[in-house]
Write a structure and sequence with these properties.
23 strands; 21% helix; binds 3-(2-carboxyethyl)benzoic acid
């Protein structure tokens, strides 16, 4: 069997991704990438650790309460070796032949309200420097976990400060800040440093937009002086016959406006409608991914809304929907104060990496 170039495995122990019975063989189709949630894996490039501590410098471990059992998960991003690893500025990275994962933790200067924008800009400049130095020119997916995201500092919300620094860095580094921006999510933590993770490729992904929504990079200035820098989703080749889909954080937004403020059930329906639309857009571009293939992280602003969100997902997709069974629910702040739920994730189209 040909091994995928990249995969991601989701497991519930921090070291689930350390030893694997299906470890890719060195040299096998070294361009492939895959992502599988749930099993063991040899040396991953890096991990998103939810409710779990970082073990390696390329682990991204935001402090977020996991709602339900088990209390901790890891999504390990894996690609055949040999790997190279290093650090560029604040970014710790590891890469194979075609894929790179990087993670960083950024501390702020508590005394300086300008520090978030400045630190975000510097962090993203480090990240782009790392991508240039290693030859992984194309960020595919970014994960942003921002402490106290909705707090207002000196008259401007911290998410809006984050957006200024991020867009400045993209522009300064010559990265696509509008059409062609990577997929991303941005969630709020109550404590800990700013955590940024990146999955990058040697070849450019295909960005997707949602026809129900204004592109985030074209949001009017009602939502802040600089628009957020992300595409609604990204598609990329990840192995023989396989395509990866990365869904950006998706919420109850139609056009550029939040809809159903105060109503977690209606927000969940709208969010799922947005995700379903993105799957249709992917299908129209030639990548058929069903909702059963989705590996999702569900963030609720208020832990007590988790049951309602889960219930709406079950109503809409079926009580036994595989995407619901493997979804992880977390408590996080969301980048608009009127948003109660945000869902992000990934999926793989094509033959299963662990299949015969
Ligand atoms: C939205 O659609 C909801 O700033 O990187 C979703 C995904 C959101 C990514 C980001 C923000 C970001 O605008 C918020």
């Amino acid at each position: 069997m040909t091994e995928p170039v990249l995969h991601a495995r989701r497991g519930s122990r921090a070291n689930d991704a350390v030893a694997s019975p299906v470890a890719p063989q060195p040299g096998a189709n070294s361009g492939h990438l895959w992502a599988v949630r749930g099993a063991n894996l040899a040396q991953p490039l890096g991990r998103l650790c939810l409710g779990a501590h970082a073990v390696e410098p390329t682990d991204l471990a935001p402090i977020l309460p996991v709602l339900g059992e088990p209390s901790h998960f890891v999504d390990a991003w894996c690609t055949p070796g040999p790997h190279a690893q290093g650090r560029t500025g604040a970014l710790h990275w590891r890469h194979g032949a075609e894929w790179l994962f990087g993670a960083m933790q950024v501390n702020e200067d508590e005394a300086n309200p300008q520090s978030l924008r400045q630190r975000v800009q510097a962090a993203y400049l480090d990240l782009f420097q790392a991508l240039r130095d290693t030859g992984f020119a194309h960020p595919v997916r970014l994960w942003n976990y921002i402490p106290r995201i909705n707090e207002v500092e000196d008259g401007l919300e911290r998410y809006r400060r984050f957006n200024i620094g991020r867009q400045q860095a993209f522009t300064q580094a010559g990265q696509a800040a509008f059409e062609g921006a990577p997929a991303a999510c941005a969630l709020g933590t109550r404590s800990g440093p700013l955590c940024i993770g990146v999955l990058a490729c040697r070849r450019p992904p295909v960005p997707l937009e949602n026809p129900r929504q204004v592109s985030a990079y074209r949001y009017p200035t009602d939502y802040g002086p600089r628009a957020p820098t992300f595409s609604r989703a990204a598609l990329a080749d990840i192995g023989p016959g396989r395509r990866g889909l990365w869904l950006s954080g998706t919420a109850s937004i139609v056009g550029h406006a939040t809809v159903h403020p105060g109503d977690p059930r209606a927000q969940t329906h709208e969010t799922l409608a947005n995700i379903e639309t993105l799957l249709e857009v992917a299908a129209a571009s030639g990548t058929r991914i069903g909702r059963d293939d989705l590996v999702l992280n569900v963030y609720v602003r208020h832990a007590e809304h988790a049951d309602a969100v889960r219930d709406v997902m079950a109503q809409r997709w079926g009580a036994r929907a595989p995407a619901l069974a493997r979804a992880v629910f977390l408590q996080a702040d969301i980048c608009r104060t009127d948003l109660l739920v945000e869902i992000e994730g990934h999926a793989v189209a094509g033959p299963s990496p662990s299949g015969p």
